[in-house]
Amino acid sequence: MTLELRIALTHLTSRKRQTVMSLLGIALGVAFFMAVSSLMRGSERDFIKRLIDSAPHITISDEVRSPPQPPVVSFYPGGAVALRGLKPRTETRGIRGYKQKLAWIAAQRGVRVAPVLSGQAILTFAGKEQGITLNGIVPQLMQGVSDIDEKIVAGSLDAVASNPNGIIIGRGLARKLYLDMGDNVTVSSPIGQVRSMKIVGLFETGTTAIDEGHGYVLLKRAQALFGRMDRANRLVIQLDDPYAAPQLAAAIEARIGYRSESWQEASQNLMSVLLIRNIIMYSVVSAILVVASFGIFNVISTVVMEKQRDVAILKSIGFHARDVQRIFLAEGVLIGAVGSMLGVGLGYGLIAILGVVKIQPPGMTDAINLPVYWGLDQLALAALFAVGSATIAAYLPARKAGRVYPVDILRGGMA
Amino acid sequence: MSEVLRAEAVTRVLPGPLPVTLVRDATLSIGRGEFVCIQGPSGSGKSSLLYLLGLLDVPTSGKIWLDAVDTSGFGEDELAQVRLEKLGFVFQFHFLLAEFTALENVMLPMTRLGRLPAAEQRARAKMLLADLGMGEHLDKRPDQLSGGQRQRVAIARAMANEPLVILADEPTGNLDTTSSANVKQIMSEMVHGRNKTIIAVTHDPEFARAGDRIIRIVDGRIVSDG
């Protein structure tokens, strides 16, 4: 142990009560920092997990990010080109050649992909009409990219495959129109196609907008209804590694030209909210540690005042100003480090308690444990911040101690 | 006798709205192995002169040579290093670290200098304390020692790094007659037995008589030297 550290320890142990209070301040600060951080990070991860599990990791739509430039603009880049009366070519909406694109994407490692053709349709039953989003799907492929199969409460997704005129609707819609399994409904598309379809399944997601406003039919049936043969307007992709989505989405977009959106891009607003929430959370819990470091400032300032005579002795013996500074800085670091160690133990205890607390969020039927995060990174961050703020708090009194002019103290005798 | 310390036209003025001259134009030379006592009335500038000679304070004008080295251009850290290596101090109120034992207090300058391994530092500190009759009190803290014993620990600490000069500010000022006589005897032995140089400020005429030379100072000015 260095001499400075030994002297620092004797100073702290000679003021036990104040030292213990400072340690408690840091320990509680670190513990609360960890507990709040664990809750926030836990809920964030839980939220992202739900997002990843329930939504496609990448969605390819029948849009392009920037409309294609007329050849003359590409030919004269930067030139003053003006085109008037330009009329885009009329073509059937949807992803052209989606099967080839689907095959290429499916050949990528760790990727599952399914085509979807969505459009608006009107469901009619017993004189009642309800507008819905009708999704044309390939059930076997859809099972690989969506959890819709798990949400089916009556019938099955495969029933759509075996019955080309089968439709699966939400339980909310069924309730609204007094429908049940096996009932026939009329489905009308915007281009005037009308089909009678049989309800072969009911699903329930818990989200009213989906349960009352969505229906699933076979892709081929949707293509016929919307008059878009051999087209899909969405390719939905699920990945083994959801966090690789932005890179793969960019690669797919570069390859096939259609807008390819990762779940991160699609949830950008939510991600911003999470970021802001994290900034607020870390500001608040850091404030606890900053307040605790004021306690350290007080203790070390008092020690410096009390130990001026010792400082004068050390300087007369030949200690440099920086040696004296190191003694008092070491006191701050010691309080910060020991307080952090205590706080980490206390913090893990708090996290363990929070982890067994059960809550029942609105819209959910089962009670769940508070989502907590056990990562070591928040421990390191809390300890680092605590030791840092303790060191900064100790710096000012330490600098003052280093500037003590021994003669001023020695002249005062016993002072 | 070779010169170990020299002051030339040293003046120390405390700045302020009403500047106070503590030491005025002091010139003196101290040889190796001399026992010099500085005497004078209270407030005459004895301690101020001692602090200047001990490089604890810096003169407003004039120069001080220690071991033939001009210290006038030295910064705070350089002066601290010179004090550590070449000077030892004994103060009126012992000034030991209260939380450290006698042995640890004596080891302090050696540990800071770091020239000896820890075991040798300990052995030397024990030897110094034993030589001063403190062999039985190595592990006692200052508050467990008498005034005379504390002063002996302070003397041992001053000698820890084998200094060229020991500077003592009223070393017997706070001691009873027996302890004063004991400290005087120790210091006298250090000069005559171990060829150490001692500069001591004292009010005590008995103590001053042990010195080889008395410098008298009045109103910051040296009025006699011999």
Task: Describe it.
The complex is a heterodimer of chains A (415) and B (226). With 415 residues, chain A is an alpha+beta fold. Chain A has two domains: 3-52 and 270-411, no CATH class; 92-263, no CATH class. Helix content of chain A is 57%, strand content 17%. Chain A has a six-stranded mixed barrel. In chain A, α2 (16-54) packs antiparallel against α13, α2 (16-54) crosses α15 and α2 (16-54) runs antiparallel to α16 (376-402). The model of chain A has no long low-confidence stretch (mean pLDDT 87). With 226 residues, chain B is of the alpha/beta class. Chain B has a single domain (3-225), classed as Rossmann fold. Chain B contains seven helices and ten strands. In chain B, the strands form two sheets. Chain B has a six-stranded mixed β-sheet, sandwiched between helices. In chain B, a hairpin with a 2-residue loop joins β9 (213-218) and β10 (221-225). The longest helix of chain B is centred in the C-terminal third of the chain and has 18 residues, at 177-194. The chains are: A alpha+beta (415), B alpha/beta (226). The A-B interface holds A 3, 7, 10-11, 13-14, 309-310, 312-323, 406-407, 410-411, 413-414 and B 47, 51, 54, 56-57, 76-77, 80-85, 87, 89, 91-93, 95-100, 108-109, 111-113, 157, 169.
